[in-house]
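quick one, 383 residues, struct below
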Amino acid sequence: MTDRLHEDIVAVTVPKWGLSMEDGAIVEWHVAEGDLVKDGQDLLDIETSKITNTVESSASGVFRRLVEEAGSHVYVGQLIGVIAPESVSSELIDEYVETFQKQYVPPDAREIEESNAKFLETDQYRIHYLSIENPESQHRPVILIHGFGGDCNNWMFNLVELGKTLPVFAPDLPGHGASGKSLESGSLAELATAVLAFIDALHLATVDLVGHSLGAAVAMQIAETQPHRVASLALIAPAGLGAEINNTYIREFIDGKNRRELKNTLGLLFADKTLVSRDMVNDVLKYKRIDGVTEALTQIADSNFPDGKQRHSFRHALDSGVAVPTLIVWGDQDEVADPDHSRGLGENIEVELIDGSGHMPHMEAANQVNGILLSHLLTEKHT
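---
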């Protein structure tokens, strides 16, 4: 993330990945002082409590100053580097860095936590969610629907970036995250009904749906049953396009009781297994120890993946030509849902395969996927 505070100087600062993020650690710089950098080039990797991600440059120029070394503990918005043309003097850069650091105020963790603890009560469900409501935006609201065993924090690398332009809402599905754990059957229809109730409670008429894995199947279910409510679909590593699913992942996620077991299971989500951090595993363990979670996950798995196969297929609906613009994004190394399920669909379906990513391309290749999503969501075809 870069921030222009001077006509010729670009500040490289710690980005905010997810509404609750406040700090991280610099893992590795990919550039050195004096290097020419291009807009969009990888500058460094930062590890948060959830995952490691890459910071890209938002400008072309010379990397003039490395402010924070690899290994440094840094906070959101903190200055970590400077890009400027050679014509800018070292003295001016020194002055710029000093002024920035004097004016910088680290985020307040308590304020962040309190501002993001949002709940909606519907007739049947208590739904926790994160949002950037962006009231000045002229664009339609976007609903981000996570997958099996996930929660709204799965969108930590996407919510803030999309929210710069769009109103964005990310609910925890029933049985997940901080939402209520009581389910009637765990069926796809029930999950879709809960999301529709969430949309209704927000008084939103028509929305763009972005779904991941099981959440993509939920999005397709809504589009099939309530087509007038859906302006577009973006489906990331979607369930619902083929019979096969990695049932080992599903059952081991439900049954896993310790860090070692869950670390191996969560590794199936990523092409880069090192992204499964200790904090990520601990967060999943805490969630699984909440009363009602195992029962809810079992209901959802039994209802949607009986005998290790996917119950629902929306392939015919996509093949026959859906009425809304539809994008599919899939990691080419997905070990949970086969990316070949994206082949042979209707010509009006846009498919983007992400090289070197697994089942979570919106986390592993967040910058690339954010760009693809924004291009899809902002296209004039949706109006």
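Residues 1-5, 109-115 have pLDDT under 50 and may be disordered.
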